[in-house]
Amino acid sequence: MRVSPPPEAGDATRLLKAGNGLLKPDVWVVSLNGRETVWKTWHRRPAIERATFGRWLAGREARIIRKLKGIPGVPDFISQPHPWTVEMSLLDAESVPEVKRNGDLTPEYFERLWVMISEMHARCIVHGDLRRRNLLRSREDRSRPLIVDFTQCGHFREPLRWPRRAMFEGMKRVDRITFLKLKKWYLEQDQMTPTELAELEDVPWHLSLGRALRKKVYRPLRRKLTGHKGS
């Protein structure tokens, strides 16, 4: 099936990712006025979904990206061409490898990645969906991490008081555990500290439950309903 870009994007477009699934956006590289940018858009979703959830998700991601302005490795917000589309800067990036422990990602990459995540936390934002597909690296400096996809971010307003502080700390913990799992996937065990390995032995129960439900329930159901074979 051919995926068409929004009419406002013109003809100079390149599809980065097709949003095949409920609430999933399309991601395009759009060239207008001699500049390439990224459009993340729900324009192809059914009208009700586009005007409700698509509009809400786009507005939410736009606010979070603006809140993260100045953090190296995060795209800059540019505009919202329409309520269900976010325009952001195009990162000069390449995907991280999927091969386990092949030596292609260095400890420096993960040191810099944790600095980025910590800066997000300092701004009361948790990513909530750290995974290989949302991590990139700079083409010029392959030890420089880049992060994309902020749809599932948690954004907490200050001052943080209970119970919001408890929720924020719990979500920070999820970011930390998923970060360490990624680090363990790519690096040899002796490249991790004893403290990091101990943290991985103490995974919060709700995170373990969520992963089990995703593996045993969500993925099989998704494959059955859509024929999708990915994770």
Q: Overview of this structure, please?
A:
The relative contact order is 0.10. The chain has two domains: 7-89, Phosphorylase Kinase, domain 1; 93-220, Transferase(Phosphotransferase), domain 1. 39% of the residues lie in helices and 18% in strands. It is built from five helices and ten strands; from the N terminus they run βββαβββαββββααα. The protein has helices spanning 47-67, 107-122, 164-186, 194-200, 205-226, and strands at 13-17, 26-32, 35-41, 77-79, 85-89, 93-95, 125-126, 135-138, 145-147, 154-155. The radius of gyration is 19 Å and the shape is globular. The chain starts with 12 loop residues before the first strand and ends in a 5-residue tail after the last helix. The protein has 231 residues and is α+β, with helices and mostly antiparallel strands.
Task: Provide a quick synopsis of the model.
This protein is α+β, with helices and mostly antiparallel strands and 231 residues long. The protein has helices at 47-67, 107-122, 164-186, 194-200, 205-226; strands spanning 13-17, 26-32, 35-41, 77-79, 85-89, 93-95, 125-126, 135-138, 145-147, 154-155.
